[in-house]
Structures are given as structure tokens and as C-alpha cells.
Amino acid sequence: MIKRQLGAGICRPALVVALLIMLTGCLEQSRTTVDDQGARVSGFDWGLPDHIPLPREPEDNPMTEEKFQLGRHLFYDTRLSSNGTISCSSCHHQDKAFSDGLAQASGATGERHPRNSQALVNVAWNNSLTWGNPSLGTIEKQIMIPLFGDDPIEHGLNEGNHEQVLRNLQAEPVYASLFAEAFPEQSDPLAGDLAWDNIVKALGSFVRGLVSFDSDFDRGTMSEQALRGERLFNSERLECFHCHAGYNFTDATTDRLTTFNTVLFHNTGLYNIDGLGAYPSPNTGRHEVTGNPGHMGQFRAPGLRNVALTAPYNHDGSVDTLEDVIRNYAAGGRLRVSPPYPGDGRMNPYKDGFIVSFSITESEIQDLVAFLESLTDQAFIANPRFSNPWTDNSNKDLTP
Ligand code: HEC
Ligand code: HEC
Q1: Do the two domains 14-212+384-391 and 216-376 of this chain adopt the same fold?
Q2: Domain residue ranges in the chain
Q3: According to the model, what pLDDT value does residue 275 have?
Q4: How far is the CA of 301 from the centre of ligand 2 (A)?
Q5: How far apart are CA 278 and CA 265, in angstroms?
Q6: Regions in the chain scoring below 50 on pLDDT
Q7: CA distances to 78, 95, 119, 217, 354 from 91, in Å
Q8: CB 290 near ligand 1, within 6 Å
Q9: CA–CA gap between residue 113 and residue 105 (Å, rounded)
């Protein structure tokens, strides 16, 4: 069994153990080099603006264009699931900044995921993965969960079916050349357990390469209203910037200039079931993994780039609009009278100290929403590099 809280000491099938060892051990020759100043340079064209520091690349999975392109094909391939019905892109749509517009999506067997599908935007800079898991430090480890997890079932791969799934991929002629180009040092990169290690590394490379820094905010083309909203966002009255900090608007950011890495989580007072400060199970956030009551309801502050495209909001998709997200903050937590889970989140004893009520007018709410909308990157959601390569009748043409 492999659950969402992978790494929390649960048993896993042999294949998954073998993969995890491969993912953390066995160093490949890294194309990432260190210059005289100790700053690291990448063999991959990240295409970043000058002021954005490079993200870290795992020693055993340095970025290459070839792995990125293989990962892109796998990301959009439903053959990578137990019954051919689900791909990563089923829950991560490019036009929605790789979220899916649903409160909660279902996997290959129809089982509902308890959490909202996350946007995949600048994931390379996140120092923890998913809504609230402190044990997932790399994208590669995270990807094991949708592929092999059985609680809930997403792609539904397991000991019994992974060999057949691999045979289906081997039967696709395009993959022979894509795998060979991505892993030139291997004689048969599409065979056996090594193929699964390669699949995870390629998917990790594609997700890591989903980069968005071309919004009105970045271009300096924000409206007057958005500029007013930005001042509110950065004000001590609203406190947004404390947790949604830095160039990705999250304090969970790490890059190659980061010397001290702190993995942070916060309880924003969405729930207070029965007055005990509990969040509805299994969505108890960091507490789900650590079991520590003080971690109840703590989640990672999500990055806010492209957030206007990713409704509904919060870890369980229980908030419909950006306006309502802001109203919950203004109240110092959510008071919900109707099911499911009515209760007064404002009274949650584990609430983060920054979540205090503030007064805000309707027009200020609209200003703040205009600011969040100015973080939308139209080039990102239209970028052909990130799009489905299987629909263009030219699978072998990989030119971006
Ligand atoms: C059934 C829907 C579904 C499928 C299929 C799916 N995901 Fe996700 N994805 C989610 C949900 C839900 C989360 C949040 C999980 C959580 O918090 O526990 C998530 C989170 C992530 C994250 C973490 C992002 C972050 O900022 O921390 C990454 C990376 C990711 N998915 C990549 C993938 C890849 C790659 C695939 C294909 C192998 C995939 N997903 C398949 C629903 C899905
Ligand atoms: C104490 C830290 C903290 C502060 C202060 C804070 N946030 Fe958040 N924010 C979070 C966390 C954590 C979540 C996810 C909570 C959850 O889903 O349970 C979140 C979620 C959000 C979301 C939903 C994003 C998504 O992808 O679903 C938006 C939008 C948002 N915050 C905007 C703001 C704004 C605007 C402010 C200021 C009024 C603000 N935040 C203040 C930590 C914070």
C-alpha cells in the first residue's frame, strides 16, 4: 500500500521500494556545473528573467531538454494508467494552469481524491510538495503517489499491472527514440524496473520545467486597480505577504541562493469541527503525516501565480471564488453554517498568528482580486512547449 503520506513509515510493494532507492541513490553524471563563485549553472535553458534565481535540480536527475520532452509525452499519455483512462493531464489542464476546475477529481477507477488538484506552476521552486506534506522533498517522490498510490487510486499502477502498462508503452514507436535520447547512457532505457525509474525522472523533468514569469505583474503592465490591490496585499492590515512571500508568492520557496531552508505550514482557520480545532479527516494537513495535534489543519501556502485560473480554492476545493477566499481571511477564519462540516473556523485554536480579522470594503476586495488577476500568465497557458504533443499528428516533431 502506498498512501498520500508516503514516507510516513507504511509498507510498500517491492517495485516501489526499489524505485525509491533508485530515485534517492545512484548518481548519474550531472550536467550541472559549479562556477568560480559557487553559483550553479544549468545545462537546461530555463528561460528565466534575470532577477529570478535558478531552482535546484536533483543531483541524480539534472534537467535536460530530452528528458523534458519525454516527460511531456508521458504526462499526456493515458496508456500510463491501469485501464488506459487517466493521464496526468486528466487532472492538470494547461488552460487552467494545470489545475482542473473541480473541487476534487476522480482517478482511473472513479475513486474521488480528497483534495483539490493543484496547479503546476513553478513547482521547481517549492521546498515541499502537495498541499500539506512535509515528507515529500522532491517532485520525483511526489510523482510516485499519483502513479502507484492506492489511497486514493489515481493512475492505479501496481505489482499486478505495471508490466502490461510498460508493454503498452514499449509498443509505441515514438517512445523508442524519446527514451534513447533522454537516457543515452543506457542500452535499453525502456526495459524492466529501470524503465519506471526513467519514467518518473522524465515526468519530474517536465513538471520542473513548467515555468511562469510572464504576467502583467512581471511586465510592469498592471492596471491602477491592480496596483492598489498590490499595496493592500503587502500591507500590515491584510498580512498576505507574510505567507505568500517572494517572487512565487509562497514562503515555501527555495532556490540556489537559499542558504537556510525552512519548510513552513499554516492553519488559516477554515474548520473547527465540534469546537475541537480538528479539520475533517483525511484532510488534516501536516497533521495527517506527523500525527502532532499542533500541526492540525496546517497546509503549505500555495503560490499565487495564475491563481485566477485555478478555482475552486483551498486544499479541498471548498471555497468557490477569490472574493470568498478574501472574505474568510477578513473574518479571521471561515464561519460556515451549511453542510458539509458547518462550524466556526475563526475559533480554531491552532490558527496561525497572522490570521486575524481585518476590515475591508467591497471595492478593496475587487482591487485585491485585480492584483491576483495580474499574476495570470497568458503565455504560460498557451505555450506549445507545455501542450499535448499527441494531438498534432507529428509526434516525432519535437521542436517547441
Ligand atoms: C486524479 C487526479 C490527479 C492525477 C491523475 C494526477 N494528479 Fe497531480 N495532483 C492531484 C491532486 C489532488 C494533488 C494534491 C495532492 C495532495 O495535496 O495530497 C496533486 C498534486 C501534484 C503535484 C504537487 C504540486 C505542488 O505544487 O506541490 C505534482 C507535482 C503533481 N500533482 C504532478 C502530477 C503528475 C506528474 C501526474 C501524472 C503522473 C499527476 N500529478 C496525476 C491530482 C492528480
Ligand atoms: C498565515 C499564512 C497566510 C496568510 C497571512 C495568508 N495566506 Fe493565503 N493561504 C495560506 C495557506 C496555508 C493556504 C491554503 C490553506 C488551505 O487550503 O487550507 C492559503 C490559500 C490561499 C488562496 C487559495 C489558493 C489556491 O490555490 O487554492 C488564496 C487565493 C490566498 N491564500 C490568498 C491570500 C490573500 C489575498 C491573503 C491576504 C488577505 C492571504 N492569502 C493571507 C497561507 C496564508
Answers
A1: yes
A2: 14-212+384-391, 216-376
A3: 87
A4: 6
A5: 16
A6: 1-13, 21, 23-39, 393-400
A7: 12, 12, 9, 27, 32
A8: no
A9: 6
